């Protein structure tokens, strides 16, 4: 298990924080697609998020070997729309990968786009991101 | 002394309020509100008057398709069987909400694209397990009232609304007056759904009451007021306002700037109702829809020891508390359910077991019972504390507890939806690790916490037992049944700390504090077990003995 920081770049119409929040919510939608979500559900995001103290950029923090559930009712429409920089061929592969794993689990690292910056915790801390390693 | 439950409350629980299940149960199970307080307009998915014999709604099958009136079932709820039969696999939109007052002020539209939905093609839409009329498009939910309108200077609306099924911007109750509408109450919902809570509202002389918004003589409505109701997307609003000329009610979605789903709307063309009928109506609606822990308690711990700013517990602390916590299944389908109390005032463990079965359940919300909706929530699944291990409800000394450290990944915490100023805190917590530094309440912005013991190192400042020196006398020293009652109060110059009813001692000269988290989200700094936090914004050392007697009796703390 290793922690990975995924700093989220802003896109047109969304700040880094807004996009990170939206991506995180779509990750939870892999578990609970909108079609089966209950409006009263509290759980909305899959991963913790941290904000860079200087740049206010937001990073999603995942674990490379975390197993992510794929609901049989999954709908990737919103998630793909949040990834405009990802090549279409890669999106198509992602769709296929998700499709064949419906009802099962996939490693989180297999869902991270090739265009996404990935930092180890040491790299992230060196770049000024808050650590997530427990304090004593 | 154990919590005292009033007879009426116990009866209410037996009628179906306990056990986490909503609705009336067998038979009508509720008093139709219009029987006691006749209204001027009334729409609902349930029958609101014993004398009303008409339909609940008129539905349209597919845009421009066939329509049919839908009546009520024997329990007084909109007839879901009739909906499914008429739908025949198609979607159903609500064309008309029938006025149950007999005044003929139906809310209706002939524009199919303005209608909201009640049936998906396979199931009835629900909020908190009760049918709901929900928008699914940007223009859904515009209905005009037929008949004569209000010209009264004051009107009062009680409504049961929820966040609906669309990503949206605002959850609101909206009344239209003349040619222009006013937003009576609103909460901001980020993309992806309404989760961060009520954000703002405007109107005149409104104040907030645990999911109930009532226009009267209270204080002005603020952003923080709305932020106190972020957990259950279903809410009860009772909003009074002073504009005249009511001629339309937006039942669902106001263009692209608001979104909410509707279960009930009751309007009075009169000034604000008096306190007694208002509370009675609110409790009538709330007992049916199970939306809120109302603040108008008259018995129980919180009534006996008034002034709590926030109260979280595995027991029922007032006669109006109906929701204890919301639990989430840790495996597919990862669904959630509100859990209430037994008739005796304990956490409804049977409901937890019935819902969980062999699945682990974690806590996504620990509801504030103070009536101020300062619910403590966790939206990230891997940071939610555990309550049920797939076999049994976790217990400490015979009472349930929420397992934080290590219960679900190691970074468990619950976040209050607003900061709470505290001058007195009573906590029942526990920890198995010897010498463990465990923060049980925390302010993330100020990096300030109340801790339960162990070796003090960092961060600073911290406040808790024996904080003055480095290696300290932790209150929780590592016994296997490490359950303790901690007491903190600000005496005007500094904080006193006591344990298990013992003498309180001064530990740190700092001011009164605010907190916004239950336990610190950090693997090695969390208290492991939590059963109760009662937080006062004022000094309650005057009743410390009585309060601690109550707590220690319930939890059997020596």
Key descriptive features of the protein:
heterodimer; A: 136 residues; alpha+beta; four-stranded antiparallel β-sheet; two-stranded antiparallel sheet; 4 helices; B: 558 residues; mainly beta; nine-stranded antiparallel β-sheet
Largest sheet of chain A: 4 strands, antiparallel
Mean pLDDT of chain A: 91
Fraction of residues in β-strands of chain A: 15-25%
SS-based class of chain B = mainly beta
Q: Give the averaged pLDDT of chain B, no decimals.
A: 73
Question: Can I get a quick summary?
Answer:
The complex is a heterodimer of chains A (136) and B (558). With 136 residues, chain A is α+β, with helices and mostly antiparallel strands.
What does this structure look like?
- The complex is a heterodimer of chains A (136) and B (558).
- Chain A has 136 residues and is α+β, with helices and mostly antiparallel strands.
- Chain A has one domain (3-126).
- Chain A contains four helices and six strands, in the order βαβββααββα.
- Chain A has helices spanning 16-31, 77-81, 88-100, 121-126; strands spanning 3-7, 49-51, 58-63, 67-69, 105-107, 119-120.
- In chain A, the strands form two sheets. A four-stranded antiparallel β-sheet of chain A has the order 2-3-1-6.
- The longest helix of chain A is centred in the first third of the chain and has 16 residues, at 16-31.
- The two termini of chain A are 21 Å apart.
- The model of chain A has no long low-confidence stretch (mean pLDDT 91).
- The longest helix of chain B is centred in the middle third of the chain and has 15 residues, at 275-289.
- Chain B has 558 residues and is mainly β.
- In chain B, β24 (395-396) and β25 form a beta hairpin.
- Chain B is elongated, with a radius of gyration of 24 Å.
- In chain B, the strands form seven sheets. In chain B, strands 19, 20, 21, 22, 23, 27, 29, 30, 31 and 35 form a ten-stranded mixed β-sheet that branches.
- Chain B has eight helices and 36 strands.
- The A-B interface holds A 18, 21-22, 25-26, 28, 31-32, 34, 36-48, 69, 71, 103, 132, 134-136 and B 126-128, 132, 134, 162-165, 190-195, 231-234, 261, 326, 328, 332-336, 338, 364-365, 377-384, 410-411, 457-459, 522-525.
